[in-house]
Amino acid sequence: MTPPAYQTTQTTCTKQTTPTVTRRSAKPAGRTALRALFTAASAAVLALTMAGTATAAPYAVAVRGVSVDGQRYLLRAAGSGLELSATGGTVNIVGSGYKPGQGIDIAMCAIPDGVTVGDTSTYTQKPAPCLEAPGATYNTSRGDFDAALALTPEIAPGVVCGQTVRCAVVTKADDSAPSQRLFDQYLKVNFG
To answer: Taken in order 61, 102, 69, 176, is the CA torsion positive or negative?
Structure first.
C-alpha cells in the first residue's frame, strides 16, 4: 500500500503546471485591458485636442482597430467645426494610426443606407456620392494627416446634405484600394 500512496503524491507536477497556466491566461487579459485603456486615452486626447480652441466645437472623434497584412492599426480621426451654416464652411480633420504608405481620401460623403455611424460592423458599403475637396487626398507616409475642407451642402445635383441624404466627413482608402472598407471612418456633418 505504501508504493501507491507514494505515486499519487505528485506535488512537483501540480506546482509546475499551475503557475504556467495562470501566467498564460493573465497576460492576454492584461494586454486587453491595456489596449482598452490606450484606446480610451487616445480618444480622450483627440477630443481634448479638438476642443482646445473656441472654433473647434462641435467636434467628433472616431477610433477603430483594424488588422491589415498581419499588422494591427489603431485608426484615430477627429474633426472640428462639423456644425456648418446652411451655405457651408470649413471643417478641420486630423488623423493618425493609419497604415503607412496607404493613400487615404478625406471627403464629405452621403452616408450609405444601412451604415450606422460609430458601428464599424455596418461599414460594408463604399460611401457615395462624395464631394471631393481640392487637395483632400493624402498619402499617409507616416500614417497621419491634417486637412481643412471647404464644404457646401450640395454633394451632387439633387443630392443635398440634411435634405435628401445624411452626410459625414469620411476617411477611406484611395483608388489604390477602392473596395477596402477597413479604413472607413465617419464624422457626421450638419448644415443649418
So the answer is: positive
C-beta atoms surrounding 166 within 10 Å = 17
Q: What is the pLDDT along the chain (192 residues), one digit of tens a residue?
A: 444 443 333 332 333 333 333 333 344 454 444 444 444 444 444 444 444 433 435 789 999 999 999 999 999 999 999 999 999 999 999 999 999 988 888 999 999 999 999 999 999 999 999 987 665 567 678 899 999 999 999 999 999 999 999 999 999 998 888 899 999 999 999 999
Query: How many Cα atoms within 13 Å fall on the side-chain side of residue 38?
Result: 13
Asked whether the bond before 58 is cis by omega within 30 degrees of 0, the reply is yes
Contact by Cβ (8 Å): 145, 170: no
Q: What is the pTM of this model?
A: 0.70
Residue 25 host element (H or E):
helix 11-50
